[in-house]
Design brief:
This protein is mostly beta strands and 225 residues long. Helix content is 2%, strand content 47%. The protein contains one helix and 16 strands. Strands 4, 5, 6, 7, 8, 9, 10, 11, 12, 13, 14, 15 and 16 form a 13-stranded mixed beta sheet that branches. A three-stranded antiparallel beta sheet has the order 1-2-3. It is globular and about 45 Å long. It binds zinc ion.
């Protein structure tokens, strides 16, 4: 089904041609182990104070939007920030090293938990140090993986090689569930000291992830070093 950019329009974009939800959609595996995760959110409702979220459980709800900052300056959802430190309402900090990271959403979800999602875009060869020492939900979405932190300290390393965009995950403490976006499968759980070697996806010139090249894809990640 083809949906035009006018079909799903945020009230905030009433008078524009802007495709409201395109940049807020997360292509998660629909049978992921945690149905409380979001697949779409829009943080711009009620004058940017409420976030509408659609969950993998197919519930849709709104919650209070929470503030975030980049180097102490109030940050905006949907914006991409360069080297520096992102801080969030749950106390999580993210150090951006080389290149950039965007803030997708941060809000109180329908289970009264703080749920925050950040992302990196194509062409990004930097790394993110995520210090998530709490029980809130915190996800890092890259073109290759989705990493869900659980009381964790982790590094997300992004690589670019030709038309391949990759991400590797190193976990220093806590637990991280890493979803390989090339396949419909539940994520792999990493704990203290474990890492996930770089997973690469081909990206088109327009920056749209292409179909996975399954012949080179192991069903499970290569064994950990
Ligand atoms: Zn909206």
């Amino acid at each position: 089904m083809y949906v035009t950019s006018k079909t799903f329009k945020c009230p905030a974009d009433r008078t524009t041609q802007y495709n409201s939800y395109e940049s807020f959609y997360i292509g998660r595996f629909v049978d992921a182990d945690d149905p409380t995760k979001i697949l779409l959110s829009c943080p711009r409702h009620h004058k940017n104070t409420r976030t509408v979220a659609a969950y993998l459980s197919y519930a849709v709800d709104t919650g209070k939007s929470l503030p975030a900052a980049w180097n102490g300056i109030p940050a905006e959802f949907g914006e991409v920030y360069p080297d520096g430190e992102l801080t969030f309402a749950d106390g999580t900090t993210v150090t951006i090293r080389s290149r950039s990271a965007g803030i997708h959403s941060s809000f109180v979800d329908n289970a009264q938990q703080i749920q925050t999602t950040i992302y990196t875009t194509d062409g990004n060869a930097g790394s993110l140090l995520v210090n998530h020492g709490n029980d809130s939900k915190f996800a890092v979405v890259t073109p290759a993986v989705i990493a869900d932190a659980q009381n964790a300290y982790l590094e997300v390393v992004n690589t670019v090689s030709g038309e391949e965009q990759g991400s590797g995950i190193l976990v220093s403490s806590g637990k991280v569930v890493v979803e390989d976006r090339r396949m419909d499968a539940v994520g792999t759980t990493l704990t203290n000291g474990q890492d996930m070697p770089v997973i690469s996806v081909a990206v088109l010139e327009e920056g749209v992830p292409s179909e996975p090249s399954r012949k080179s894809v192991p069903r499970r990640p290569a064994k950990r070093r």
